[in-house]
Amino acid sequence: MSRRKSITGGLFIGLTAFSAILIIAVIIILLVVIIIGGKDTFSWEFLTAFPEDGMMKGGIFPAIFGTVLLVLIMSIAAVPFGTITAIYLTEYAHEKSILAQTIRFAVRTLATVPSIIFGLFGLGFFIKYVGSGMDDLFLGGQLKWGQPNILWASLTMALLTLPVVIVSVEEAIRTVPREMREASLALGATKWETIKRIVIPGSRSGIMTGTILAVSRGAGEVAPILFTGAAYYLATLPTSLSDQFMNLGYHIYIMATQSANVDQTLPIQFATTMALLMLTFMLNLTAVIIRSRLRRKAK
Amino acid sequence: MEEPIGINKFVFSRESLKKKFRLSEFLSEKIITGVAFLSITIIVLIFFFVFKESIPIFQSKKKEIAKVETVQKQEQYGTDSSVATNLSGQEQYGVTGTDSLMTENQILEEDTVVHGSDEATAKSLMGKQWLPVSDNPRYGLIPLFVGTLKITLIAMLFAAPIAILAALFSAAFAPHWLREIIKPAIELLAGFPSVVIGFFALMVMASFFQNLFGYDGRLNAFVGGVAMALAAIPIIYTITEDALTAVPRTYTEASLALGATRWQTALFVTLPAATPGIFAAILLGIGRVFGETMIALMATGNAAMIGINPFESVRTLAATIGAEMAEVVFGDTHYNVLFLIGSLLFIFTFSLNALAEFYVKGKLVKRFQGKQS
Question: Which ipTM score applies to this complex?
Fold first, then answer.
C-alpha cells in the first residue's frame, strides 16, 4: 500500500471522527450555555411560584402545571391505543398482509407529519368539528367546547405521540420469547389469555419506555398547541377540561419573541429553558437506559 | 387457568379438538383490529380536515356562508385567547424585513386595483407578495416557498455531510466504547424540544454568527438553517447508521480479504451499498426541516422576502401558519389560505415519506437479496 493512500485514509477517518465529535460538542455547548444562563434564577422557588409583574418576575409554576396536565391527559389517550395497535401488529396481523403493511405505513407517516399540521388538524377537527358539534348538540349552541382548551390540545398531542408509543411497545413485544407464548398456548390458554398474561407483562418495560418517550416529546412540542389551547398568561390554574393552560415550551417562545422587554427577562427565559430541557433530558435518559437494557436482553 | 387440569378430565375426540367459539376471544380480536385501524383513520382525517378548510378559496359561493359564520364566531371568540393572540401576532415581522416590505406595499397600492373577489385571491396565490393583513391583501405563496427551500438547502448542506460522516465513523471506525457514547448522545439530541433549539439559535447562535460574519440582520436564513440542521442531524444519523450496519458482513469481509484497508472498505464498499438507505435518511431529514415550525419562527426573522442571499431574513411555510393562525378570523380567506399551506405541507411530507418508504426500501432489499441468492 502506498504512503499517499494511507495519508488519505487517515484524513478520511479523521474527518468522520471530527463530524461525530462536532455533534457531541454542539450538544455539550448547548447544555452548558443554557445551564450557565439559567442557574442563577433557577431555584425551587422559581419552579413553584406564580409569574409576577406581567411575567417580568416570579416563577413558572402555572406553566409546569399546565405541561404536566397536558402530558397526563395525552398519555391516558395515547398509551392504551398505541399499545393495542402494537399488539395487533405483532400478535394478530400477518407480517406480509396488506392491512398490516398499510397500518405500518400509516404509523410511519404519522411520525413524519410536521407538528404544525397536527395543530391545524386539532383546530379544524377537534375544536371546529367535534367541539362546535358538542356545543350545538348539548348546550344549544352556547360556546364551551368549540374553542381552544386543554382537552383538545392534549388529544392533538396524543395523535402526535401515538407512533412513539407504537414503535416502542412493538419493539418490546418482539423481545418476549416465542417459547413463552407457545408454552402458554400448549397449556390450554387462549390467544387473548396468552396476550393478557404473558405478552403484556413481558413487555411492561417497553410500554414504560414508550410512555416516557411520548411524555418527553409531548412536553417539548409547541407547534401543535399554538392554537389548540395554550395561553400566554393565566392568573389561575386550569380546573376543568374546557380551560386553557400555560405551557413551558410556549412560555419560552412567547417570552423570547413577544415579551415587552426581552433583555430584562433573559434570566427567566434561560431558567425556563433549563427547566424544560432538564425535564425532557431526564425523561429521555431514563428511556435510553431502559431501552439499551432491553436490547441487551433481546440479544 | 386456576384449576389444575387433570388429563383424565378430557376425552379427546375430533369434536373436542376443534377450535371453540369463545365470545371473549372474538371480541378482543375485533376490538384490537378496530383500534389498529385508528392510525389509518387519523391520516385520512388529517388530510380531509386540513384540506376541507382550504377548499373555500376555490369556491366563491361557499365563501359567503363562511363569512356570515365568521362574524358570529368573532363575537363569541373568548377573551382569554384573543389577549393571547394579540400579543403573539403583531411583532412577528422581522426587524429587517418590515420597512422594505411596507414601502413596497405602498408603492404597489397606488397602481393596483383593489380586488375583492375570490378569483383575485386564487390568482394572488401565485404572486410574489405575502401581505395578508393589508387593505388589499395578497397571498402570494412564492416568497414562502423560496424561504422554505432556502432554509432547507442551508440546513441540509450542514446536516447531511456531518450526520453521514458521523454515522460512518460510529458504524465503521469507532471503538466499541466510543460508539456507546455517540449513539445515545445523538439520541438525546433528537429528544431536545425544537423550542429549546430555537431559543439557543435566537439567543446564542444569532449573536455568534453575527460577530463571525458581520452582517446586519441578526436573524436570517443562515442562522435558522444551521439551527434546523441540529434538528435534522439525529434523524439522518440514525437512519444512515442503521443502513450502514445492515450491509451484509460478507461484503466487508470480501473487501478486506481482497486487500482493501478499513477506510477503503468503508468508503468504497459499505457506503455505496447503503446508498438507498442514506437517500431515505436525507429525504426524511428534508421532511423534518420543511415542516419545522418553532425554530423557523424564532430564528429566521420571518420577513417574506425573495432572494438568494443566505444572510437575508426569510419566512417559511410552517412558520407562517404558526405565526398567523392564532390571529386570523375563523372562515376568513386568510384562514383558508393558511389551511391551504397546511395541505401543501402535508402532501409534500407525505410524498417524501412514501418515496423513502417504497422506492428506497424496495431497492435496498432487492440489492441485498438479489446479489446474495
Answer: 0.91
